[in-house]
Design goal:
It is globular and about 60 Å long. It contains twelve helices and no strands. Helix 11 packs antiparallel against helix 12. It has 261 residues and is mostly helical.
């Protein structure tokens, strides 16, 4: 059973006043309004009514991550780390409640990835395999799940960004043979598929552009970054992502593509 969720606001209504479905719907509306704190409160109410609600569990996990990611990874924050751990626990509840649900596996793969930031190097290597396994299972159930495609694209990119020595050490001494499955081409393919599946998602385009920059494919990176400035804001982090995209666009101004890639 997952640990008790943080209560981040007053309950929207007495437990007897609304159904699980109504609370989940209210939570979704709050997510669309870029208010993850209120969304989490609604999902908490739904989970009090039904502790094994699949929708409330995976969406609650997502809301917890949406709150946590507003604190940069570079900042030491026990509160953020706790949110990610709770998100992982809730995602596991969702998968147990509905083993055939793509969203549950997506939430699990994303939450493990974020919670892993608080772990030791050896634990992070071990959990890399679990992230990939959950994400691949999500895609088996829903091949064009754009958020899962992003997770797998980012998974490949983050491993490839490690130094060759670090990857060798992880594979040789930490049991990280799964790292052999990572490739730059896979990062591009998965993130490009995420963009195709959800073309107005700023985060997809930003991460794809960053991979293009890693590969010195600046023309393609600029195309993605310029498009971001035209897109509507949906995610609570979209204003930040827009700023990052503009900064990256300035950084690569005038750079020419590597003809070898």
């Amino acid at each position: 059973m997952y640990r008790r969720l943080l209560i981040l606001g007053c309950l929207a209504a007495p437990l007897s006043a609304q159904t699980v479905e109504e609370q989940v719907a209210a939570g979704i509306a709050s997510q669309l309004a870029r208010d993850p704190h209120t969304a989490l409160t609604h999902f908490e109410v739904a989970l009090r009514l039904d502790p094994r609600s699949y929708e409330a569990s995976w969406r609650g996990a997502e809301a917890l991550m949406d709150i946590g990611k507003q604190t940069p990874d570079s900042v030491k924050s026990p509160e953020r780390d706790s949110l990610y751990q709770q998100a992982e626990s809730l995602a596991r509840v969702a998968v147990a409640a509905n083993p055939e649900g793509a969203d549950g596996y997506y939430a699990l793969s994303a939450a493990i990835g974020r919670a892993s930031l608080t772990k030791s190097k050896k634990e992070r290597v071990r959990r890399a395999a679990e992230i990939r396994e959950a994400a691949l299972r999500s895609l088996e159930l829903q091949p064009e799940h754009h958020k899962t495609l992003h997770v797998l694209g980012r998974w490949n990119a983050e491993i490839m960004r490690l130094s060759g020595l670090t990857r060798f050490f992880a594979k040789t001494f930490l049991g990280g043979k799964i790292f052999n499955a990572a490739a730059w081409d896979s990062a591009v393919v998965y993130l490009d598929r995420a963009v195709v599946a959800s073309p107005e998602n700023i985060y997809h385009r930003l991460d794809l552009a960053e991979v293009f920059v890693d590969r010195q494919r600046y023309t393609e990176a600029r195309s993605q970054l310029e498009r971001i400035g035209e897109l509507p804001v949906y995610d609570v982090m979209d204003p930040v992502y827009r700023e990052q995209a503009a900064a990256l666009l300035r950084q690569i101004q005038g750079k020419k593509d590597d003809p070898k890639d």
